[in-house]
């Protein structure tokens, strides 16, 4: 068959038109996805993608409403954004479980972070779930960079189990991260397996030591979080913590949250992990010589955190469960934060405000 120039011109033109149409279609779908996301949040019928629907925003008890009417506006100085509930571990006491698979589109998350910055946020902590599950760490990396580079926040931190972090991530995003907190509840691998932090052939403690080195190499402040529970309450961690030398060792008492790790609709049953206040105090006494120790009992922990869920709703834990506000993407920060149940006095009492920028920590890298 002989092909003439007259036939090639319309063919090339058609290919160009198809390409342009595809670009516009991709842009349209992206815009529709964000719009649909906003509608789902606003209408309160966001689901997990598996037939589960999110709980409706509950009416506040009378005493909470009275407190709202009389209290001063809260400034969200330090915010914990749990942008995903998905995790590759199965910690038995987890109090933020995989009840949905939802993650906001990146640009919507950035919009919410900008609103928080405008409302007075100085520190953002990204958590989960496991933050490094989403896009192999690229999602949280881009948020970290945005918060430091575009929003100029004094402090940007992440809490992770550490199992999915690679050195490449530090090379790409380490400059923008102030603090990396790694969850480590035991230096006995058998105990980690009992808790739910088993990595198969990998060793959680060995991985912790590798991450400590990377933090030093890429100038990221290193922190350790430990939940003290029935399986590690008698452990002596002095030697290991001293050797790792974190800037802070946050020690939490195992906490029950209805609907998360306790109750009929919970995905975990944490009752068997509970310890008494006396047992928690005994653990603290055993480690009192560790200078970086920062203890948090159930009383200190419950209402002293500003927690945003995956839909950017503040979670009110005053009733022993997580009751969501409206999303800040819909009603703004000032309105949504009224329903957060945040206890600012307890936040300051537990040492929630500290030297949290690596530029001010003056660490000997």
TrEMBL record:
SUPFAM superfamilies: Radical SAM enzymes (SSF102114). Belongs to the radical SAM superfamily. RSAD2 family. The gene is Rsad2. InterPro entries: Aldolase_TIM, Elp3/MiaA/NifB-like_rSAM, RSAD2, RSAD2/Viperin_antiviral, rSAM, rSAM_sf. Keywords: 4Fe-4S, Antiviral defense, Endoplasmic reticulum, Immunity, Innate immunity, Iron, Iron-sulfur, Lipid droplet, Membrane, Metal-binding, S-adenosyl-L-methionine. Its cofactor is [4Fe-4S] cluster. Transmembrane segments: none annotated. It is found in: Endoplasmic reticulum membrane; Lipid droplet. Homodimer. Interacts with IRAK1 and TRAF6. Interacts with FPPS. Interacts with HADHB. Interacts (via C-terminus) with VAPA/VAP33 (via C-terminus). CDD domains: Radical_SAM. This is S-adenosylmethionine-dependent nucleotide dehydratase RSAD2. The lineage of its organism: Eukaryota, Metazoa, Chordata, Craniata, Vertebrata. It is a peripheral membrane protein. Residues 49-72 are annotated as: Disordered. Its main location: endoplasmic reticulum.
């Amino acid at each position: 068959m002989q092909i003439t120039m007259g036939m090639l011109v319309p063919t090339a033109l058609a290919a160009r038109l198809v390409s342009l149409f595809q670009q516009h279609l991709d842009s349209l779908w992206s815009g529709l996805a964000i719009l649909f996301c906003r509608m789902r949040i606003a209408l309160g019928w966001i689901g997990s993608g598996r037939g589960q629907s999110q709980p409706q925003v509950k009416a506040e008890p009378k005493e909470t409403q009275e407190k709202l009417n009389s209290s001063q506006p809260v400034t969200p100085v330090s915010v914990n954004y749990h942008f995903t509930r998905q995790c590759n571990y199965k910690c038995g006491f987890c109090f933020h479980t995989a009840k949905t698979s939802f993650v906001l589109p990146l640009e919507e998350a950035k919009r919410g972070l900008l609103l928080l910055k405008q409302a007075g946020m100085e520190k953002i902590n990204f958590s989960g779930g496991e933050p490094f599950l989403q896009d192999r760490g690229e999602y949280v990396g881009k948020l970290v960079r945005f918060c430091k580079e575009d929003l100029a926040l004094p402090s940007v931190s992440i809490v992770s189990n550490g199992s999915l972090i690679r050195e490449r991530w530090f090379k790409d995003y380490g400059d923008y991260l102030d603090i990396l907190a790694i969850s480590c509840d035991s230096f006995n691998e058998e105990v980690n397996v009992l808790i739910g932090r088993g990595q198969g052939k990998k060793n959680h403690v060995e991985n912790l030591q590798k991450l400590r080195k990377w933090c030093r190499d890429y100038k990221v402040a290193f922190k350790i979080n430990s939940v003290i529970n029935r399986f590690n309450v008698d452990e002596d961690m002095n030697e290991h913590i001293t050797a790792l030398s974190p800037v802070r060792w946050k020690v939490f008492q195992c906490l029950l949250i209805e609907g998360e790790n306790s109750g009929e609709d919970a995905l975990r049953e944490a009752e068997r992990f509970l310890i008494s206040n006396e047992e928690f105090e005994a653990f603290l006494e055993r480690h009192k010589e560790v200078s970086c120790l920062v203890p948090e009992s159930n009383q200190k922990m419950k209402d002293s955190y500003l927690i945003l869920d995956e839909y950017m709703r503040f979670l009110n834990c005053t009733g022993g469960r997580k009751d969501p506000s409206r999303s800040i993407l819909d009603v703004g920060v000032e309105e949504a934060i009224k329903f957060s149940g945040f206890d600012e006095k307890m936040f300051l009492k537990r040492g929630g405000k500290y030297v949290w920028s690596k530029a001010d920590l003056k660490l000997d890298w």
